[in-house]
């Protein structure tokens, strides 16, 4: 099962909004509403930011939102803050029974 | 507060074995499926294996099937990963994570333990 496709990097200035895409296939993202997103700061464990396409866990800022259309999912961060600078990974369940991840996107806050 | 503490990582030669442990606290352990996810430092995440709350069902990535075995001891609130026939490409940080088996996401993660396979 191939990894989901994410841009290697995105950047934005404080206060701006950015969107990270995550492209899969009809066998993973397109097949289920089981897309999740994780934030990872350097040297730290991943942290769940979004589950089931667009559900935000308690404690996660409402500046984080997500959606899905067809085989592509997207994470949007509005009102960028310096603390948002991190790596972001998408994930989806696949028809093979595996959970697959994207290669990760490095967000730089300029 | 959920706490997951991995241990057992280290340096091992190709073909060798290692057993990872993950001590869980702060939640009812046997109510949750659990998983191992690995990450080559500086690279992406890779799901390795999952196990249901009772331990009755296990699942593996193709890359580790037949070499790795996931298990759990609910009386000790501990998750395990027995890794045999290790390869250089298994070198990674191994994370223990809670796993929502129905909705397929990982709510909480441990800090990870580094496994290095090298001669």
Describe the structure.
The complex is a heterodimer of chains A (about 110) and B (about 120). Chain A is mainly β and about 110 residues long. In chain A, about 0% of the residues lie in helices and about 45% in strands. In chain A, a hairpin with a 2-residue loop joins strand 5 and strand 6 (about 70-75). The radius of gyration of chain A is 13 Å and the shape is globular. Chain B is mainly beta and about 120 residues long. In chain B, about 0% of the residues lie in helices and about 50% in strands. Chain B is built from no helices and 10 strands. In chain B, a hairpin with a 4-residue loop joins strand 7 and strand 8 (about 80-85). The model of chain B has no long low-confidence stretch (mean pLDDT about 95). Classes of the chains: A mainly beta (about 110), B mainly beta (about 120). At the A-B interface, strand 7 and strand 8 of A face strand 5 of B.
How would you briefly describe this protein structure?
The complex is a heterodimer of chains A (110) and B (119). By secondary structure, chain A is mainly β.
Keywords:
heterodimer; A: mainly beta; 3-stranded antiparallel beta sheet; 0% helix; 44% strand; globular; B: 119 residues; mainly beta; 4-stranded antiparallel beta sheet
Shape annotation of chain B: globular
Determine the structural class of chain A based on helices, strands and strand pairing: mainly beta
Please tally the β strands of chain A and state the result: 9
Distance between the termini of chain B: 40 Å
Taking Cα atoms only, what radius of gyration of chain A do you get, to the nearest Å?
13 Å
Q: Which of globular, elongated, flat, extended, rod-shaped describes the shape of chain A?
A: globular
Radius of gyration from the alpha-carbon trace of chain B, in angstroms? 13 Å
Average pLDDT value of chain B?
Answer: 97
Count of individual helical segments of chain A: 0
Order of helices and strands of chain A: EEEEEEEEE
Q: N- to C-terminal separation of chain A?
A: 35 Å
Instruction: Give the helix level of chain B as a range of percent.
Output: under 10%
* Structural class category of chain B: mainly beta
Strand content of chain B: over 45%
Order of helices and strands of chain B: EEEEEEEEEE
Please state the oligomeric state of the protein chains shown. Answer: heterodimer
Low-confidence stretches of chain B: none
